[in-house]
Peptidase metallopeptidase domain-containing protein (Lentilactobacillus parabuchneri DSM 5707 = NBRC 107865), 230 residues
Amino acid sequence: MNELFSKNFIQRVIWLSIGAFLISLIIWLVGFSTSLSPAVVDENNVPTEQVDTTTTPAYSPKTNFHWSTKTISYHITETTPGHYRQAWMRAIKAWNAVDVVNLIPAGNSSQADIILSVKTSYHEGGGTVENIAGGVVGYTREEFGHVDGIPLFVHQNKSYLIINSMKQAHYDSVNEQASVAMHELGHDLGLEHSDSPHSIMQEAAPTYLYNIPEVDAKHLAQLYEGIPER
């Protein structure tokens, strides 16, 4: 009996190991992944006169991930305070004004491609806002993968404005908060952090921009070139 039990036990261990390996292989082949894109406090916070030297678009995560159509739905959570809701709405209006994508309100949160909200503090990546250089004023969680070989966002993206960090950085006006919201929404659409001194997608989210800069509009247009409207 002990000998039989030992053989059965060994066989179960072998099959469990094979199963775990196959699951890992499938996940790797599908290419499913999650990316976290935080925006830190802009300590300089002044416009620059440097020449834009960006020669190639900066996509998220630098491999052309985008939505399957140019019509993209969003939902602002009910718990988002009024002035932060205004910031998100300004960001939506700014990206729609570029006339590349069409951001539309979803019927409810479960139907939305993008969830827009706030959090009191930043706790992603095992850290808090106090021990992250510069302070994180917003972040976006993207879920992406390859569908029939095409790099696409495959589920809801979620973006947050961080209330405590906004207060610590004295981002008190809706204009300042909207600049951060534009940055995070840029990630939701497929843009990565940019080295361009004119970009809303600078890692240190600029707060002096009220519209989407030309460099970002160009990058978004290139990213969604040939993508159907619906």
Notes: Strands lie at 33-40, 71-76, 102-105, 114-119, 136-147, 150-153, 157-162. Confidence is low (pLDDT under 50) at residues 1-5, 44-55, 126-133.
